[in-house]
Write a structure and sequence with these properties.
Elements lengths: L2 H20 L6 H8 L3 H7 L3 H22 L7 H14 L1 H6 L4 H12 L1 H27 L9 H22 L3 H18 L2
Helix pairs in contact: 1-2, 1-4, 4-8, 5-8, 5-10, 7-8, 8-9, 9-10
């Protein structure tokens, strides 16, 4: 890895939590230089502008969460086990997620919705990837006759994402971890009652 790549990675690692906690609007170039110990010239020598740093930080934050989710998926497990583990991850890892500023998808989605067109498309893409992952597991379960053939995998995938994100939002705003647990319990009930063959 060359020096320029190391410096870029360093900037991203040092500012990822900052952007996730404070958002794009709330993070200044002074915040970035304070977090990294680098000069403004050094930051702009590696990134064209603050937008580029924010995009790299968002990508870093999302990959961190997605890597954790991916670890819950085991090839030898049933689709039901993999689907359940995907949601239990949020309960089991909520403390760590909260320490890093909460869910980067939710945080960025709220800020990007009306004000940050440069970020909105990237956030949309991340939600699509997550939803597709859930739908793929459901389709796998249908092929294995674990889930009912007639169910709409995409419909349930979006429903589950809505429930998880609602739980995450309430956890964050109330500082009470019970909401994500409630959301996961509801998802598991839906899986048992509506998906399981």
């Amino acid at each position: 890895m060359d020096k320029a790549t190391k410096t870029k990675n360093f900037i991203v690692e040092k500012t990822a939590k900052l952007f996730n906690v404070q958002g794009y609007a709330g993070t200044s170039i002074s915040d970035i230089t304070s977090a990294t110990g680098l000069t403004k010239g050094s930051v702009y020598g590696n990134f064209t502008n603050k937008e580029e740093v924010a995009l790299a930080a968002f990508d870093y934050n999302v990959k961190r969460v997605f890597q954790g989710l991916k670890k819950t998926q085991l090839s030898e497990n049933s689709a039901l086990q993999n689907l359940t583990a995907l949601f239990e991850f949020h309960v089991d890892n909520w403390t760590d997620i909260a320490l890093h500023g909460g869910c980067p998808l939710l945080n960025a989605a709220v800020e990007a919705d009306d004000n940050l067109p440069f970020l909105k498309g990237v956030v949309q893409h991340s939600f699509i990837l997550w939803t597709n992952r859930i739908a793929t597991i459901i389709e796998d379960g249908k092929k294995k006759s674990e889930f009912r053939e007639a169910i709409d995998a995409e419909h349930y995938a979006y429903t589950f994402v809505m429930l998880i994100q609602g739980g995450v939002l309430l956890n964050k705003i109330t500082s009470d971890a019970k909401h994500i647990a409630t959301a996961v319990d509801r998802i598991k009930k839906i899986i048992r009652q509506e998906l399981t063959a």
